[in-house]
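Raw record, unedited: DUF4283 domain-containing protein
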Amino acid sequence: MAVMLLATITVHLFRGWISIMENEMADLSMDDREEEAMKSTMENVWHPIRGVQISDLRDKRFLFKFFYRMDLEPVINGAHWTFNNHLMMFHRLEKGEDPVK
């Protein structure tokens, strides 16, 4: 059974700041090269046994699909993950949860 992890690239960790920073966050962007570099870098850093499937959900949101729980735990329990000065905030999806909402 695959374990899914939703990652949203944002600039702040604190939830209270996210709504305040909405307009500023709209200006963040990743071009195609940065997106591919992020996918490659995260897979190389995490070294998942069976790999990780990364899908672009748009609006600076990516779905990371891990195939083994043991691959997911270091990501969830690890330090704050960043890429190219963007803080990556993770949310573990519950069964039946829509990753786009």
